[in-house]
Amino acid sequence: MTNMLSLLVDIKDKYCVVVGGGKIAYRKVRMLLAEGASVTVISPEVCSEIEELSKNGEIKLVRRKGMEEDFAEAFLTVAATNDSQENRRISQQLKSISLVNDASSYEEGNCQLPASFKKGRLHLTVSTNGASPKLAKKIKEEWQHTYDDNYIAYIDFLFEVRTLIKKKSLSPEVSDAILGEILDDAYKESATLRHIYYEKLLNL
Amino acid sequence: MTNMLSLLVDIKDKYCVVVGGGKIAYRKVRMLLAEGASVTVISPEVCSEIEELSKNGEIKLVRRKGMEEDFAEAFLTVAATNDSQENRRISQQLKSISLVNDASSYEEGNCQLPASFKKGRLHLTVSTNGASPKLAKKIKEEWQHTYDDNYIAYIDFLFEVRTLIKKKSLSPEVSDAILGEILDDAYKESATLRHIYYEKLLNL
Hints:
Two copies of one chain form a homodimer.
Chain A: E1 4-10, E2 15-19, H1 23-34, E3 38-42, H2 48-55, E4 60-62, H3 68-71, E5 76-79, H4 84-94, E6 99-102, E7 111-112, E8 115-119, E9 122-127, H5 133-146, H6 149-168, H7 172-181, H8 185-189, H9 191-202
Parallel strand pairs in A: 2-3, 2-5, 3-4, 5-6
Antiparallel strand pairs in A: 8-9
Pathway (chains A, B): Porphyrin-containing compound metabolism; siroheme biosynthesis; sirohydrochlorin from precorrin-2: step 1/1
Protein name (chains A, B): precorrin-2 dehydrogenase
Catalytic activity (chains A, B): precorrin-2 + NAD(+) = sirohydrochlorin + NADH + 2 H(+)
């Protein structure tokens, strides 16, 4: 719990294995597919949602128990069977050689998949280290209000100003002053002010 | 930017390499050390802060330019020289074989190190995908107020209740009802109510 580095990892087309076929396995599969991973599910039995993904060709499905060679090449393995001992066994086996998440214990394995909130350029995550997945979900819902469409447009403005500054090759001092100035709440609140500021900067 | 999976990764004692010796390199080194990584810095010249870390034996310092063999065994490499072309070269070389973060571009490399907020069991992260590191810092400061000491104690309460439920082996229906019930704001607000609830549960 104490030594966890947060990373955003590009997993597009990376080979990821989910062991287990229940609802929890399905949720993890969805998280991985959303980021473009190449997902293989290994389980003797699977829920209808996973069955459906397999039929649609969105995942590869292997109907048997997981075996050592299944994980050897995986970038990330999720141990999500309904048997916590089995999950633990997989985690222990893999934790020194590759990324492994134990769905039945936040302390086993060597990585966690925190709840993720994405809107425009903003990417927030929340983990309660095993305290309450329900609270994590609630916090995400609160963020939906706090970081509303206007806020996201404000972040786009910050990005555009930053890009423009780089293009204009302004001095570090001037750049830094501008990047500090636009953090003022006035720009967060008013799309008009943002527009005026950007136009002014264009003509600098 | 679109295909990033958020992970919390245990990097205790993992071999991590930071190429570059300036302030940005130093900031990354600190993030890695905070999570217990084994850090090697590679740079012909370094700032006084990195010099100090080396003197104290907290990092290994190699005073020359980075070479291919330096990164071959690394779990994570951070390319943070003051030459964005050099950073890009390192990122391109490593992105298919290991984790690599390009400090001069959020689009190169295959992972980002988002700003991290930790308090008790709560671990939040924020990335603006290159829009504004200053805003990310500001959001972290706001979280410091939103998730105050009482909130963190509330999360501890959620954890204790969840642990107790597991110990008592209650039915999934009863467990789920309890875990939903304690999300009520009343328990977030009152330490007394939390105490009463926990005592009642103990005697269930």
